[in-house]
Specification:
Helices cover 76% and strands 0% of the residues. The chain is an all-alpha fold. It has one domain. The longest helix has 30 residues. The radius of gyration is 21 Å and the shape is elongated.
Length: 252
């Protein structure tokens, strides 16, 4: 899982994470300054409001940036699949590290009232494993993705008879589209979870948020595996192997 970390994709992963962390650090400076200007009697929920309000612009910038990147990955996945697959694999390792640093820094600055943020880290680690496993499975079909336009051309040549004579091509197109959705979606979800500490939530809300992202991420992993649209779709052993693959990595 930690092999080949020295590459351009890892550099991009670290750079993006560092930029987000820098923006969060600047917002934390503003928050501490604003808290010092308040009356010493002001505490509790007001501190939560101060934190969430000051992080609002950071959250908007991060959401826009990550969504734009995810959309670009979806559009160009078939052209640069190798690059995006490696990027997904690199992010699976580095994003939990940024989550760890962010959570520890939050607790250092705001005390153990932010202890619930550790839930993000506890879920970001298995989500990273899911992303890594998805990257490994998606890479098995790397020679198929660049053929997307050719497959569309083959299907169109049959006209309305394509349903009867181009089943293989249609299944391949569906698999490519699902793989592009899965790759971009997993990157989006992993960013959302790893930097979820930029908004204050109580422990219950943090747990529900983290669990929902992990479940959705696992669903995307399953779609990307080829267990539904691939030559292995009718292979029960492959289906079961896909289901347990992330758990085997976690238990290693």
């Amino acid at each position: 899982m930690f092999e080949s970390l020295v590459n351009i994709e890892s550099l991009i992963a670290v750079s993006v994470g560092a930029i987000f962390s820098f923006k969060i650090s600047k917002a934390n400076v503003n928050i501490r300054s604003e808290r010092r200007e308040q009356s010493p009697n002001v505490s509790g929920d007001n501190n939560v409001i101060v934190y969430n309000n000051n992080m609002l612009n950071v959250r908007k910038e991060m959401r826009f940036s990550v969504k734009a990147c995810a959309f670009a990955i979806f559009l160009f996945f078939h052209m640069f699949s190798g690059f995006f697959i490696q990027l997904l694999s690199s992010l699976s390792i580095f994003l939990p590290l940024f989550c760890l640093f962010g959570v520890i820094n939050n607790i250092r600055l705001y005390g153990f009232s932010r202890g619930g943020d550790f839930l993000y880290l506890l879920f970001a680690i298995p989500l990273g494993v899911v992303c890594y496993c998805a990257a490994q499975l998606i890479s098995q079909h790397a020679d198929l993705y660049p053929r997307l336009f050719q497959l569309f051309s083959d299907v169109s040549s049959y006209g309305i008879k394509s349903v009867f004579y181009a089943n293989t091509q249609i299944i391949s197109i569906a698999f490519i589209i699902l793989s592009s959705i899965a790759c971009s979606g997993l990157i989006l979800l992993h960013f959302y979870l790893s930097f979820a500490f930029v908004i204050y939530r109580n422990a219950n809300d943090a747990f529900r948020y983290s669990l929902s992202i992990l479940v959705f991420g696992y669903a995307l992993y399953f779609l990307s595996s080829g267990a539904v649209f691939s030559p292995f779709a009718s292979d029960l052993e492959y289906f079961k192997a896909v289901l347990v693959y992330p758990f085997k990595i976690l238990s290693f």
